[in-house]
Amino acid sequence: MQYLKYLLFGTLFGFILMRAEVISWFRIQEMFRFQDFHMYGVIGSAIVIGMISIALIKKFNVKDVHGQPIKISPKDSSQMYRYTIGGLLFGFGWALTGACPGPIFALIGSGLSVFVVILLSALLGTYVYGYFQKSLPH
Amino acid sequence: MFDFLWQPWPWYVAGPLIGLMVPVMLYFSNKALGVSSSLRHTCAACAPGDIEFFKYDWKTEGLWNIVFVIGILVGGFLGGLVFANPDPIAISQSTINDLRNLGLTDFTGFVPSEVFNWGNLLSAQGLIFIVLGGFLVGFGARYAGGCTSGHAISGIANLQIASVVAVIGFFAGGLFITHIIYPIIF
Q: Hey, is the C-beta of B130 within 8 angstroms of any chain A C-beta?
């Protein structure tokens, strides 16, 4: 039962992604061709609202619903290779599939069954990363 | 009155709602918004093998994330089928022209049906867009330690330099494929 809320959050998030149309391969192309403001508006305003929220949570030391301190793990800024190379490779995949991980799941739900192959390939990519993690520069 | 459930939402509605998922999830469940870690947790659950990266208690750390992405799938079902927008997505004319020049003709779906279909899967084009593309999404996200949700939204919102670098990488990679590689592989 404690997991029901995650199902609910995911459903909400997936529905918003659909109505935002960020799941569209064509929208991603508009973005990478600088031909429409839509994607920049969505991502930009999401960041601004997220940023203000986190700043307020930190400033007022907001506790979660169970009274526990809210913890947000920082990313390790000493590992710049991984963000540069990993980021580039992710960008290649993003432009090819027109979908980052969230939209992959949303598109499968919308009935685009061939995206199951993209999901399985992404799982394989994750697995191969895990296998070679130690020998990759981070 | 409930027309908005079927209609596309403008960026200034959809974007802030996505941003609000960050504090909602932090407050109600003390979890940072992120999607791609669910792929790692799935590997850890199904086939950890002898790989250290997958040897951890995936149920404690990751079951919530797997349930969350199942929810995204349900959201996609609701948004894409149950409350399907009857009109095709209004793509800008210049993008349509560019893609026409690459040989695409169908602009009605969420994705170009000529590329993303089962019949095209084993062609060179299908293997590149579907199989290689998916592989790079999974490999790249884990290598970079996050995807669009974890880095671009949660990470930058938390003022992480690492996330800014990762997102510049995402974008540079996307520009390279779109402007240099697309003319070759289409």
A: yes
